[in-house]
């Protein structure tokens, strides 16, 4: 149900943030915003849309 | 009281941008405050005893100190400077002299009381400076935020906007900390006037990986945003905006189209 249309809308809405805000803040300090997760519940279905926001993705937590 | 707080509805991009910026500001401010306090401690150690005393020791603290040493209010102007009172003052390192007008006929003068108070002020200041010096010598602790995540429960609303209106798509950022110039509008394809926007068929399958989460109907959809933007212009439902409102735990009714959560992960690298 929540196929590509919903995903595309979220991507479209968040693109300015990922394109502009996050790189600007990431450039200011060593604090990096690297992942944006949108959890959506539609009826009984739960979806998680994970958007990688940084080229400098830190190593996974051990 | 909670009922009077009506959550403000924001565009999704504005909401997320605000959340990210406020997280950033909070971490930076926390770090700044810590550095500033450390500098304050070091600067206070460099101050002379009398300057430190003048800034940080109050009259009330002097009164309290003297009240502990002289609980029966023996120390006052006109009190005889002898016996037990003299011994206790000597133990505090105070010696009154008639030639300095601290004593008159061996009784404490007003000038003598002032000097005693000043001496006590410096005693208290000295104790505090010594404590600060010990803290500094042991190394000042720092709290560093090395990783974290911010989670905000929200209600999503899908709103139809007129094609070409200034509030469309990513430009709906009024009231947020992000200016429109910070948020360039994405390419959207407007629907014909008077017609409802219709989802356009996806011409190419999106590069994505769908990972089933065991035992639930949940799915994690991991999108490769870069490939999506290259291969697929953002043309799906061009006149539909997603806006969000912070979820209310007290409300018994909701008209939200969808409920969910925005989660922002950050880390020091």
Main sheet overview of chain B? 4 strands, antiparallel
The SS-based structural class of chain B is: alpha+beta
Number of domains of chain B: 2
Shape designation of chain A: elongated
Helix content of chain A: 40-55%
Largest sheet of chain A: 2 strands, antiparallel
Order of helices and strands of chain B: EHHHHEEHEEEHEE
Give the topology string of chain A: H per helix, E per strand: HEE
Which overall shape of chain B is indicated by the principal axes computed on the Cα atoms?
elongated
DSSP summary, beta strand count of chain A:
2
List the helices and strands and how they pair.
The complex is a heterodimer of chains A (62) and B (269).
Chain A: H1 4-28, E1 31-42, E2 45-52
Antiparallel strand pairs in A: 1-2
Chain B: E1 9-11, H1 12-46, H2 49-56, H3 59-69, H4 83-91, E2 103-104, E3 107-108, H5 110-138, E4 147-160, E5 208-212, E6 219-223, H6 225-231, E7 240-246, E8 258-268
Antiparallel strand pairs in B: 1-7, 2-3, 4-7, 4-8, 5-6
Helix pairs in contact in B: 1-5, 2-5, 3-5
Short description:
The complex is a heterodimer of chains A (62) and B (269). Chain A has 62 residues and is α+β, with helices and mostly antiparallel strands.
Structure overview:
The complex is a heterodimer of chains A (62) and B (269). Chain A is an alpha+beta fold and 62 residues long. Chain A is 40% helix and 32% strand. A two-stranded antiparallel sheet of chain A has the order 1-2. Chain A is elongated. Chain B is built from 6 helices and 8 strands, in the order βααααββαβββαββ. Chain B has 269 residues and is α+β, with helices and mostly antiparallel strands. In chain B, a hairpin with a 6-residue loop joins strand 5 and strand 6. The longest helix of chain B is centred in the N-terminal third of the chain and has 35 residues, at 12-46. Chain B has helices at 12-46, 49-56, 59-69, 83-91, 110-138, 225-231; strands spanning 9-11, 103-104, 107-108, 147-160, 208-212, 219-223, 240-246, 258-268. Chain B is elongated. Strand 2 (45-52) of chain A pairs parallel with strand 6 of chain B.
